[in-house]
């Protein structure tokens, strides 16, 4: 589970899906075309399409339909979301390439509008999984318990947070209580994750990553370091923005030599 995404369940996080995606303005639709990049005489250029994604938002900024396509621009999966009159997500349906149901979810909230239960159903409508969420007195998400169809717990995760609610430690255990994942995070004044430390199954430091951002709080560099502190890999990102401050082109480079890897072109439509 990504530490970066861990704040989305907290009461203080009243942002819309569009805002959580880093989008500005009243976005109606965003189409993202992901291309393999090549170096052509020192310039990164798009080579061939790797995938495509189209996301629709309602006027309240919540995702309603997201469709994923493969390199041949053929539909792979569609996720349709439904909301109540408080703009809270209450159900999802995931469809396959021929629009047949893969699985669905239902979500339930308490009187503080905190998500307490998320139930997963298979393609026949049978119970497949249930997740229960817990919060602290400030409304920050602190614990998730995952149960299978038989009611047996198979995963438990915990968050420790700073005063702003940023998750500074994440731990995950299997149904027998064995540690399966652990990481910790450090944040800057803009609440951007600037360092993430990963630990092994014994809770011992394994490796870490350092993140850098531009003035729009988008990641421009990720450097990975091994247990000895030596840099082993690097990702660099160059962004072009539209007039509303949304990314319309992102080029990813890998390794210290800055080899072009991918180019994402985003076509954004706004509500009037």
Task: Describe it.
The protein has a single domain, classed as Porin, CATH 2.40.160. A hairpin with a 5-residue loop joins β4 and β5. The longest helix is centred in the N-terminal third of the chain and has 4 residues. The protein contains one helix and 18 strands. It has an 18-stranded antiparallel barrel. It has 272 residues and is mostly beta strands.
**H/I helix tally:** 1
Please tell me what the overall shape is. Answer: globular
CATH class: Mainly Beta
* Sequence stretches where pLDDT stays below 50 over 5 or more residues: 1-7
Report the span from N to C terminus: 37 Å
Major sheet size, sense and barrel closure = 18 strands, antiparallel, barrel
How would you summarize this macromolecular structure in one to three sentences?
This protein has 1 helix and 18 strands. With 272 residues, it is an all-beta fold. The longest helix has 4 residues, at 17-20.
Key words describing this protein structure:
globular; single chain; 272 residues; mainly beta; Porin; 1% helix
Question: What's the SSE blueprint?
Answer:
Layout: H1 17-20, E1 27-40, E2 43-57, E3 63-69, E4 75-83, E5 89-95, E6 101-109, E7 115-121, E8 127-135, E9 141-148, E10 153-161, E11 167-174, E12 179-187, E13 193-199, E14 205-213, E15 219-225, E16 231-241, E17 247-254, E18 259-270
Antiparallel strand pairs: 1-2, 1-18, 2-3, 3-4, 4-5, 5-6, 6-7, 7-8, 8-9, 9-10, 10-11, 11-12, 12-13, 13-14, 14-15, 15-16, 16-17, 17-18
């Amino acid at each position: 589970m990504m530490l970066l995404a861990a704040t989305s369940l907290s009461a203080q996080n009243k942002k819309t899906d569009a805002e959580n995606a880093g989008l500005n303005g009243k976005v109606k639709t965003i189409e993202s075309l992901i291309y393999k990049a090549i170096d052509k005489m020192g310039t990164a250029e798009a080579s061939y399409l790797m995938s495509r994604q189209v996301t629709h938002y309602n006027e309240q900024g919540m995702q309603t339909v997201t469709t994923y396509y493969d390199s041949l621009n053929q539909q792979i999966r569609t996720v349709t979301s439904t909301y109540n009159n408080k703009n809270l997500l209450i159900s999802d349906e995931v469809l396959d390439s021929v629009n047949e149901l893969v699985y669905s979810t239902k979500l339930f909230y308490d009187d503080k509008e905190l998500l307490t239960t998320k139930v997963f159903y298979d393609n026949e409508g049978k119970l497949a999984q249930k997740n229960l969420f817990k919060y602290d007195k400030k409304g920050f998400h602190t614990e998730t318990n995952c149960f299978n169809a038989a009611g047996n717990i198979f995963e438990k995760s915990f968050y420790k947070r700073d005063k702003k609610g940023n998750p500074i430690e994440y731990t995950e255990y299997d149904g027998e209580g064995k540690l399966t994942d652990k990481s910790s995070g450090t944040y800057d004044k803009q609440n951007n994750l600037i360092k993430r430390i990963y630990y092994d199954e014994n809770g011992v430091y394994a490796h870490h990553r350092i993140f850098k951002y531009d003035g729009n709080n988008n990641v421009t560099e990720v450097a990975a370091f091994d247990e000895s502190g030596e840099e082993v890999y690097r990702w660099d990102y160059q962004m072009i923005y539209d007039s509303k401050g949304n990314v319309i082109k992102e080029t990813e480079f890998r390794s210290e030599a800055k080899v072009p890897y991918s180019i994402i072109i985003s076509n954004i439509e706004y509500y009037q």
